[in-house]
Structure formats: C-alpha cells, structure tokens
C-alpha cells in the first residue's frame, strides 16, 4: 500500500512539475523569445529563422513536441526502458500543457488587457521581469519533477546518453548544449542584451532548482538512546513508515549495556518524532545529523548514473 501511495504521489509531482514548466515557458519565455537553453529555445530559434515563411504563425510549441518525442525515443533505445518510463510522463504532459497555455490561455490573457502586451515589449525592464518569473516557474517545475523521481526529459536525455557512451559528466554536457543554444541566439537576434537576459533567466532556473530540491529532499539521521526503545521503534515503523536499525552499545561511563536506535527520516518529520519521543521517554538521548543523500528502499533509488558498467580487471 505504501509503495502504491508513493508512486501515486510521484506521479502527481511530475504532472504538477510539468505544468509549472509549461507556465514559465508559455506565459513568459516563449512569447518574449528569450534564449535560456532547452528544447524551448530550439523552438524559439527555428521560429525566428523561418519567421518570414511562417508569416506570423508560431511553431515554438510544435518544435517542442517533435523534440520531446524524438529525444524520448533516443532515450528509450540508448538508455533502456526504465529510464524512458521515468521521463515518459513529462515528455507528454509538458508539451501538452505548453500547447494549451500558449495557444489558448495566453492569447485570452492578452485580450483581457491586463498588461501582458507590455510585458512582451522590447523594454529591457519588462524583459528582466519575464526572465525572473520565467526562470522561477521553470526552475520550480523541474525541481518538483525531480522530487517525484522523474525528469522533464528534453536535452537532459542527450546529456545522459553522452554520459553512458562517452563517460562525460551529464552536467558538463547539459551546460555545453545550453551554451551553444544561447550563443546561437546571439547571432540570430544580434542583441547582446537579450542574450544576457536569457542567461540570467537560466541562472535563476538553476538557483531555484537547487534551493527547492535541496531543501525539500533533505534527510536526517536520528540516533536515539532510550530504555523505552521498543515503543519508539514501533512508532517509527508503524506510524512514520520508516525502518530502524537497533544497535547494541555500552555506556562509556556507566559501562551498562544499552540499545541505540538509528533511523533515517525526512527533515520535515523530525519535529513530530521529537515530540513523540518526549511523550514516550522524556529522558531519552537524541542526536540528529543532516545527511547529504539517502538512497535505498523507502527513499530515492540507488542510482549510479548511466555509465555504470564495470570494466573487467586486467
């Protein structure tokens, strides 16, 4: 039951994350033509290059659809079924939300005359506002999808394939791809200010991802010494749905045999646990330590990256 609930929660997080990314793209980045990296920037660049042929019709969301599907197919064959399933939801939902918002909702908001037309104007101040809020929404969406043990796909798949085939770190490849797109935008727009604003938006995305993902997914290690350890252990196991490790120890001063419980929980759960321990045994000794990453059953899967093949020893 807990596994089903966890998977359903992850599903909802990926859906919500895809919606947030689409809001940032459809309401801010795409209408303003900011080059911030990713498949959206590919659509913006192609839309600008073929603007005369298109005669005012935007193909940004169409390019996003095509790019997402092609890249997901690449991930399926190059990285395997498991990785493809992790990116499938966002591969479909992000372009879908993006098209709905970009084609229908965004024009409706423009017709309401509440300032969206000014927001998309050439004034650098408005561009900065677009960069700020576009970066915040996209960054928040990506981090929420990560919290759901998913991915928004896109150019991240190329980075993952490069990591598997050539052993290059994914972060380096992703940075290089976004840099190439921003550099291409400089030649197309021939406006360094707009390109720098796009870089600023990309930086805001990165900061937002780091802040939300790091602070939300933080775990703590709790070590508890108590004579009523069995009652505390039962609460952690049955009420909090976390496992514990029972460690036999000897008191350094008293030389008495004692039992110490060790449990890994989310940092947001520690207040409730401390309150319960205080109810059970006010004399309990509790140590809380921040953990950088916890992988395994009940937490994030033990994911070693895509280039995990072990080379035989010579």
The largest sheet has its strands arranged as: 2-3-1-4
What are the low-pLDDT stretches, counting only 5+ consecutive residues below 50?
303-314
Query: How far apart lie the N and C ends?
Result: 47 Å
Rg, Cα atoms, Å: 24 Å
Overall helicity: 55-70%
Q: Summarize the biggest pleated sheet.
A: 4 strands, antiparallel
Mean pLDDT over all positions: 86
What percentage of the residues does DSSP assign to strands (E)? Answer: 5-15%
User: What is the tally of helical segments?
Assistant: 12
Compact description:
The chain contains twelve helices and four strands, in the order ααααααααααβαββαβ. It is α+β, with helices and mostly antiparallel strands and 314 residues long. Strands 2-3-1-4 form a four-stranded antiparallel β-sheet, with helices on one face.
